[in-house]
Amino acid sequence: MALKFLFFPGDPVALDRITKRFADARDAVARRDGKFLEGGKEPPSFHEIRSLSIRVWTAQAGADFAQSIAGHKDSATTATSRDVRGSEWAKIVLAT
Q1: How far is residue 96 from each of residues 67, 91, 93, measured CA to CA in Å?
Q2: 87 phi and psi, to 5 degrees?
Q3: Using one digit for the tens of pLDDT, what is the confidence trace for 33-92?
């Protein structure tokens, strides 16, 4: 299935255009390859993958590099992406 793009270079980017096009491409590849997530789970969104990459870049190269590669002018924007919003595993240490 070919993806159709209904915009031209220089056109303003609509708020959901990148997310929608990413999801369309991701789903087209899953259909082509017959690889779907089990149990009806939702595949990761563009922003979830972008947030993960910002966290990885922060850990590997520092916050300034992560902000630069993300293209954020304001460090608060990058900090929002680094917030895991409770999705990380909690580590529990048991005393023996």
Answers
A1: 42, 16, 9
A2: -90, -5
A3: 887 777 777 788 888 888 889 989 999 999 999 899 888 888 888 888 777 666 666 677
Cα atoms found within 13 Å of the Cα of residue 78, Cβ hemisphere only: 20
Domain ranges of the chain: 47-83
pLDDT tens figures, 10-37: 777 776 788 888 889 888 888 888 877 7
Residue-by-residue DSSP string for 4-44: -----TTPPPPTTHHHHHHHHHHHHHHHHHT---GGGPPPP
Concatenated DSSP letters of 53-81 = HHHHHHHHH-HHHHHHHHT-SSHHHHHHH
